[in-house]
Amino acid sequence: MALVEVRSVSHARGVLREVSLSLPPARLAVLAGRSGSGKSTLCHLIAGVMRPSSGEVLVAERPPFPAPDWATVSLLPQRLALEPELSVAENVLLPAGLRGRDSAEGLLDRLGLATIAARPARDTSLGEQQRTALARALVLSPAVAVLDEPTAHQDDEHVHLVLDALRAAVGAGTLAVVATHDQRVIDVADTVVRLASGRVLTEPA
Ligand SMILES: Nc1ncnc2c1ncn2[C@@H]1O[C@H](COP(=O)(O)OP(=O)(O)OP(=O)(O)O)[C@@H](O)[C@H]1O
């Protein structure tokens, strides 16, 4: 069964051209490709941030635009979009309406954020901010987590933490759609979709 269906999607005069793909639940699916190949744009369409110029995107058989709740599709955007005055833990819990502090503890710990949970996000490193935004995307155990370059600001040690968190989410049933050119992530993917100049080069198996 496909959880994400992209059918003949074109966007913004060639940014994406006739892209089709079909992704099942509980997978780590990588969108790989060079800078400018269209990865972020495809992420935004799957996360329901915008609507395709033509074609159709379906998540759980419905168009995701306007963006649905984060238990259905969550997004880690490249620019993170944290609330700088809120603490790390509060940012992580935003999709849960700042409730459920206990339930986020395991995730904070897994991502190496437990010791800075009470610190305002603005006073944390870029790598910590990125892991905070990742935790926020995973906190509701979404059906689909769309993650744009989740290791861009991570060293090797922290890439392992990120990959462990992704594996745990996928093990719990989440489809993780990860845009990246990080070979360390590509190596552990269940599915790799390669994009070039807005087109899919290899369709997922
Ligand atoms: N609304 C738009 N209209 C026209 N061109 C756009 C629009 N949005 C993005 N682009 C262009 O489309 C191309 C793909 O952009 P996108 O951000 O999806 O690439 P990417 O693969 O995520 O790149 P990176 O790895 O650098 O983040 C780029 O050349 C970008 O300049």
Automatic annotation (TrEMBL):
Give residue ranges for domain ABC transporter: 1-205
Q: Name one GO molecular function term.
A: ATP binding
Q: Which UniProt keywords apply?
A: ATP-binding, Nucleotide-binding
Domain of life, per lineage? Bacteria
* PROSITE patterns from the UniProt entry: ABC_TRANSPORTER_2
**InterPro entries, alphabetized:** AAA+_ATPase, ABC_transporter-like_ATP-bd, ABC_transpr_LolD-like, P-loop_NTPase
Q: Keyword ATP-binding, does the record have it? A: yes
Question: Would you tell me the protein name for this molecule?
Answer: ATP-binding cassette domain-containing protein
What organism is this sequence from?
Paractinoplanes globisporus
